[in-house]
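Cross-check.
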Amino acid sequence: MEAEITDTNKLLIENFAGKIVRKDLTKKIKEGANVPVYVMEYLLGMYCASTDDEIIEEGVKSVKKILAENFVRPDEAQKILSKLREQESYTIIDKITVHLNIKRDVYEAEFSNLGVRDVPISPEYPTDFERLLGGGIWCIVELAYRFDEADKSRNPIHIEKLTPIQMPHLDLNEILEGRKQFSKEEWIDVMLRSTGMEPTALTKREKWLHLARIIPLVENNYNLCELGPRGTGKSHIYKEISPNSILISGGQTTVANLFYNMARKTVGLVGMWDCVAFDEVAGITFKDKDGIQIMKDYMASGSFARGNEEKSASASMVFVGNINQSVDVLLKTSNLFEPFPEAMSTDTAFFDRMHCYLPGWEIPKYRPHFFTNEYGFITDYLSEFLREMRKRSFADSIDKYFRLGSNLNQRDVIAVRKTVSGLVKIIYPHGEFTKEDVEEILCFALEVRRRVKEQLKKIGGMEFYDINFSYIDVETLSENYVGVPEQSGGKLIPEGLHKPGHLYTVGYGKSGQLGVYKIETEMISGTGKFEPTGLGSDRETREGVMTSYKYLKANGKNISGSISTTLKDYLMEIQDLNGVGSNRQLALAALVALCSAAMGKPVLSSLAVLGDL
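Predicted model, tokenized:
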């Protein structure tokens, strides 16, 4: 099926001629060649930059021929070497890694598929393309074969010319000006098609989740986690779409590889790549004992200490993996970080550094019609645009219209601002957006950070009580609360048994409106203290809740012999789910919650306690 010249395609052709490619061509050739998408589209961009079917057909033939003759398959490496020897020159496409041979003071190249190493290479290449020195990049390489009878120890293979498969130059203003010609929805569709997805096959929610996967490529030091079912393309964008990201399959690595090699005095992957993604989080292991601690430091500050030096880097960290149970079961029996390895699964400090938790279970398993046949940016052009946007920040986009609620601590604020900045860069890179546009992004940013906090609360208890995220309109001063879909199942008072000490009540708030309040109580060892939070500044509300504890102290033994108010402390968090203001009639509900926590027994399913003491 060929791409139709739709309005969006016309706009792309008018504004980005030579920078776009028909994605169905990529699919056709990709199915027969095991090369990254950005390699494929670099070639298609060279030979198929036209709307003329005949030119495209000829271009596809040329690309197929180049891949057939020049792309090195590992099982045909010896055949290529033989051709090189016979013809004395040969052009190949391979992944090249360069290292410095200190003993000989020369740079030497290693060819991934060709299986050849220690090939001398001019110093200009690793100087101009630093990523050759860390992880390697795909290149088109012109090789020569010159065997020296007088010096048989010398490598006969020589690199005549090396061309990295990436854009030589990006005019950012071209993209910013071109963006102005598109509506928001059209631009979102262009971005998704550029990653290979067909937006018409996705709901609005699914589109936004796919866009969020791009944030680590456009935002410095962004930490993202996505867990979900298999076959939903969690690692696709980090492996195929950008030559600036690296996917660590299996999850095993070392501090030297990831951060800093003390012996070689070289920065690891975080200094070489824009994004380091771990595929299958369950397998993340460090051979070094301090690996996770160094990772935590890096995720928090973008720097890490090795030896006597502190190093900084800007690579984002992505953690993707599979959830083997249904989300409902996980939420009832464990937490959404459960798939992480044991060394991390209860480390709240590690998870608190996550800026975003994408609900991978909301993305459907990929089917053929999910992949586009329409025009999109050449992948390399897209990745260079994303890379260039890393130098900019839109973290202050919300300040003109909104401020964040009191439940967000400093880490929450940083996370939300980073997510907002990333999505603005992707959707509104030209910096033109309305209040409604910002609000839409802000709600999404609050949700994906709140999902992290909800799980932290399950792991770490009341230390993370402040999860009732909200934002305030600076014009109307109205406060809006943002939840996470999976927590409530769409109901304010969800079905099923809750933890002991958790219950709901309904009452009139300060505004005079009826609202639902959630009370969460936790009992810990202590000396009989009671600490209620989330009450605001209303004195009568606080007094009412304190009355419930006084009643428990006076009558606890009459209620149950197991209740202790001398050797236990009680922590209580009250959440105003509808944002109607403080409720002065919470004493009865607070007492029931205290009794439930003290006795370790949950209240009835879907119970709402009404009335006052």
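The chain has a mean pLDDT of 87. The chain is about 35% helix and 20% strand. Passed to J.P. for a second look.
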